[in-house]
Amino acid sequence: MCDSIKCPELFAPEWGSLACSDTHKELGVGSTCHFSCNKGLKLEGSSNVECTASGEWTAPPPTCEGSIPVRCPALITPEQGTMSCRHPLGNFGLNTTCYFGCNAGFTLLGDRARRCRPSGQWTGGTAACRAVRCSELHVIEPGGMNCSNPWGGFSYGSTCTFYCPEGQVLNGSARTACQENGQWSAPMPACQAGPLTIQQALTYFGGAVASTIGLVTCGTLLALLRNHLGTYGVFTNAAFDPSP
């Protein structure tokens, strides 16, 4: 029994492709193959060959010649940032230059500009945007603080609210926000003794005032209370407070 005649196996040229009529790759007599090159390259040689009865192809395999188009991996716009590119030789081709920026409240990490090199790689490092940070806040004593941090602790967009225990009042703003310039919108507040009625003031000092000083005037009592509790408003009874 005689073996069927076959031609040598063919391979696609570098930067090209190969398609043969014999999908089972038997490459017997009469089999034909077609060569093609990638876009932008020229085929040097015959684009079609056929297997002859002598077990040889009608022409040697061709080659693909020309300059290989350079392409760099596509870049993406950083979150909370911007990207603009100039493509002189096609999208993300050789010498494409991309510029990066960040939205208000964010700073750029990485390079502001990147260029596609002949190697198909970008210059510089990956660009990213990070939220501007504000100084760390601490819980006011004896009060409390609640914060919301959408972009990380004490960073742009963070908001904090403050509260005081029962019987004390907040001296300052109850809310502050981290701004795009890295500053808080309001300074930290403080907890101070709340306003007292006349009866509460007398109860606060008990009999100590009377036993030590004797009968005191309203103005004297007010001065004593202010000296002990601070200059923030003491009385809820405005008529009792002689100050303007």
From TrEMBL:
Tree of life domain: Eukaryota
Disulphide connectivity of cysteines: C37-C64, C102-C129, C164-C191
Cellular component aspect of the GO annotation: membrane
Record-given protein name: Sushi domain-containing protein
Species assigned in the record: Neovison vison
Sequence intervals crossing the membrane: 201-225
Domain Sushi as annotated: residue spans: 5-66, 70-131, 132-193
Keywords from the named record: Calcium, Disulfide bond, Glycoprotein, Membrane, Repeat, Sushi, Transmembrane, Transmembrane helix
GO biological process: cell adhesion
Keyword Glycoprotein applies: yes
InterPro entries for the chain: Compl-Cell_Adhes-Reg, Selectin_superfamily, Sushi/SCR/CCP_sf, Sushi_SCR_CCP_dom
